[in-house]
Write a structure and sequence with these properties.
single chain, alpha/beta, Spore Coat Polysaccharide Biosynthesis Protein SpsA, Chain A, six-stranded mixed beta sheet, three-stranded parallel beta sheet, 9 helices
Length: 218
């Protein structure tokens, strides 16, 4: 998890991971030079659970570089993503691990509820081949990415040229290499769509996403 100035959401987001039915993990969190009290909340949370390992940027580097810093510190077989303004249902990690192992996958994502709603996002599109939708958009929810660490190593982590739409760029590169990645068709996540990166920086996101589409459709 990378976080920047999200003091209003960070505690509930972190607690949703600490409350997982699957217990054997390390929780790497990087504060990307927050100035709103996020850092102080993280320090207090770290004191309560030894699985939390905190990292701090001295300047704001953005999500892409921050995620790569965390990946370079990761030592576990699997990597699970979580965004600071989202929530994971308590059995998310347990079900993703079982799903990946059962079907011998390299990784998976899940469906998600929209925050403060019972609506499930991308439910219909999950029943079609993702290669079709990748031509137009990212059909996978970034916060639910669950992958073997060696897959990130093979792809050299996230492409740091993509300050935005880094998840879209990553997943298209993954499919170009025929890596076995599927959607677990169950909502195990709660996605915030209000006042987030995608809405605050819509035009910037679109510009980078258009570059991904252009490259993927060649």
């Amino acid at each position: 998890m990378s976080v920047h100035n999200d003091a209003i959401n960070i505690e509930s987001s972190v607690l949703s991971i600490l409350s997982q039915t699957y217990k054997n993990y390390e929780f790497l969190i990087l504060d990307d030079c927050s100035t709103d009290g996020t850092k102080e909340k993280l320090i207090q949370l770290e004191k309560k659970d030894k699985r939390i390992k905190l990292f701090f940027n001295s300047t704001n580097l953005g999500l892409t570089k921050s995620l790569n810093i965390l990946l370079n510190h990761s030592t576990t077989e699997f990597i699970a993503r979580q965004d600071s303004d989202d929530l994971s249902l308590t059995d998310r990690l347990e079900k993703q691990i079982k799903f990946v192992k059962k079907f011998n996958l390299d990784g998976c994502s899940t469906l998600s509820y929209i925050k403060n709603s019972n609506q499930i996002i991308n439910k219909k599109s999950s029943f079609f081949k993702p290669e079709y939708f990748l031509k137009y958009k990212n059909p996978f929810i970034h916060g639910t990415y669950f992958l073997k660490k060696n897959i990130y190593d093979k792809l050299n982590n996230y492409d740091e040229r993509f300050y935005y739409a880094q998840d879209y760029k990553f997943i298209t590169e993954l499919f170009k290499r025929n890596i076995n990645f599927k959607i677990l068709k169950e909502p195990l996540y709660v996605l915030n769509l209000t006042n987030n990166i995608s809405t605050k920086y819509y035009e910037e996101q679109k510009q980078f996403a258009d570059l991904v589409k252009e490259n993927f459709n060649k």
